[in-house]
Amino acid sequence: MGFSTALSGLNAAANNLTVIGNNIANANTTGFKESRSEFVDAYADSVAGMSKIQPGTGVRLAQVAQQFNQGNVELTGNTLDLAINGEGFFTMAASPTDVNSHIYSRNGAFHVNKDGIVTNSQNQALLAYKPNGLTVANGFSTGGLTTVSLNTGAGVPVSTTEIDLDINLDASSPTITAPFDPLDSSTYSRETSVTIYDSLGVSHKLTSYFVPNAATPPTRNWTAYHFVTDDPLAPVSVDTAPTGTTMTFDSVGKLISPANGQVALAPFVTGTSAADIVATMDYSGSSQLKTAFSVDVLRQNGLPAGTLTDIAIDKEGIIFANFSNGNSTPLGKVALSRFTNPQGLTKLGDGVWGESSASGSPIIGNATEGGFGNLQSGALEQSNVDISKQLVNLILAQQTYQANSQTIQTEKGVIETIMNLR
After folding, report:
1. Residue 286: which of 393, 341, 210 has the closest Cα?
2. How far is residue 294's CA from residue 49's CA, in Å, rounded to a whole number?
3. Helix 387-421 to helix 2-25 angle, to the nearest 10 degrees?
4. Could you tell me which of 303, 323, 322, 329 has the C-alpha nearest to residue 159?
C-alpha cells in the first residue's frame, strides 16, 4: 500500500513540475494565463466505524486551473494591437468565413490578412458589431457579429450645408450708394471667401461682399451679397441685379437682424451630376465696431473626397477609418465576451479558449459597459506569469518529488529487512 501512496505523490509532483514548467515556458507569451495544479487527498473506502484509523491512500489531481488575473500591459505603438484592461475576452471566428464558430482570446496581436480582414496570426478573425451608418451617432447593430474589413475605399465627400462666418464690420466705413458690382471694388467695403463642397466633393469658392448703408440711428444696415464663383446665391430682380441680405446692428454694434443671425442661401446649381448646394450662412457672432474689418470665425462643414490615412480604435472598441479629408468613418465596434466561470473554459491552444458546459454561455457586450474592461489600442497584455514565484514553486515541487522518492526507498528497505528476517 505504501508504494502506491508514494507513487501517487510522485505522479502529483511530476504533474506540478510540468505545469510550472509550462508557465515558465510561456512567460513571454502574449495574453497567456498561468495555471496551477490543485490536488486533493485520497482515501480508500472504509468499513463502518473504522474511518478514524483509516490511513490515506495518497493524492490525486483535482484540476489544472488557469488564473485569469490581469497581466501587465505593454505599449507597442501598433494601432491594431489591443489590450483588455479588466474582464472579458476578444470574440473570434475560427476562420474569416465562419463567423458563427466562436472562440475566445486575450491575445490582441491583430493584423490585416490578404483580404483586408482583421485577424490574428492563426487567421482567426476578430468579430465586431456592424455600424448602422457613417457616424457613431447612427449606432451599431448588436443583433449579430461580423468580421472587420479595412477595405474602405475612398473617404465619402460631404456637401456643405452650414457656413459659420463671424466678422467685425468697421463702424466708420462710409456709406456706399453705387449699385453693387462684384467686379468693381468701389461698390463694396470688404469681402471674404471660403471653399465649400458639393456632393461629389468638388470644391467651389463662396465669396461674401459687404456694403455699408446709411445709418438710421440707433441702428445701421449693411447688405451682404453671396456669390459662388460668379453666380449670386440670392434671388435676382427683374433687371438681373443681385439681391443681398440685410444685416442690422444696434447702437452697441450687436447684430439684431436676422434675429438668429442665420441666412438661408439660395440653392447653388452645380451644373453637374452633383446635387445642388443648399447651405445656411450663420453670422450670429458678428459685430459692427469702430475697428478694422476682421474675420474672427470662418468654417464650413463640407468635405472633399479623401484617401485612407490610418486606423484608430478608442477605449470603447470603436474602430475608425481616418481619411485625408478629415472625416472619420466607424468600421465596427469590438465585441467582448465574458463567462460566469472562465476557469471552466476549454483550453484550445494557440492562446484561445472554447465555451464548455462548465464555463457557462458567453455574455457578449461592449468594452467599458456591463462589467467589461476597457480597450487600449497600441498595446498588448503580457503573460501574467511571475517568474520569481514560479522558480520558488519549482524548488518546492522538486523537493516534493524527492521526498516521495525517499518514501519508496524507505518502503523498499522495510520489505528487504522483513524478507531477510526469514
Report:
1. 210
2. 103
3. 160
4. 303
Is 276:268 a contact under the CB 8 Å cutoff? yes
Cβ density class 54-63: b for 16+ within 10 Å, e for less: eeeebbeeee
Beta carbons of 85 and 70 less than 8 angstroms apart: yes
Q: What local confidence, expressed as pLDDT, does residue 416 receive?
A: 67
Rounded distance between C-alpha atoms, residue 155 and residue 138, angstroms: 18
pLDDT digits (tens, 9 = 90+) for 134-143: 889 999 998 8
Report the distance separating Cα 37 and Cα 57, nearest Å: 19
Q: What is the dihedral of CA 29, 32, 33, 35, to 10 degrees?
A: -60
